[in-house]
Amino acid sequence: MSVRTLLIAGIIGTATVMGGCTSTRTHQSADEYVSDAAITTKVKAALVSAKDVSAADVNVETFRRTVQLSGFVDSSAQINRAVEIARGVEGVQSVKNDLRVKGGR
């Protein structure tokens, strides 16, 4: 291989690696992903600790510090409590509530 070929390959490789670390509107950087995973874990742990919410019924996902709660719970009081708990977790910027009452319409 020539020096020129190696140089071009190095530039392309560096651009590819660096491109994998940046975020776009629909994709997270590695740092954002790790941060969101930590937030999800903290929210889920807080829900498990709460005696007035069935954590097993609440799904938690985080994207760019916005927590989405989904699933079916027993009452609107549990929905309100789950949202309150999620909002209280450090790092949470906003909460999207997609929880529903079981059997509710």
UniProtKB/TrEMBL annotation:
Entries under PROSITE patterns matching the protein: BON, PROKAR_LIPOPROTEIN
One Gene Ontology cellular component? periplasmic space
Q: Keywords of this protein's UniProt record, alphabetized? A: Periplasm, Repeat, Signal
Domain BON, which positions?
35-103
Q: Where in the cell is it found?
A: Periplasm
Q: Name one Pfam family in it.
A: BON
Family annotation (InterPro entries)? BON_dom (IPR007055), Lipoprotein_DolP (IPR051686), Transpt-assoc_nodulatn_dom_bac (IPR014004)
Q: Keyword Transit peptide, does the record have it? A: no
Tell me the superkingdom of the source: Bacteria
In Swiss-Prot or TrEMBL terms, this protein is called Osmotically-inducible protein Y
Organism of provenance:
Pigmentiphaga humi
The lineage is: Bacteria, Pseudomonadati, Pseudomonadota, Betaproteobacteria, Burkholderiales
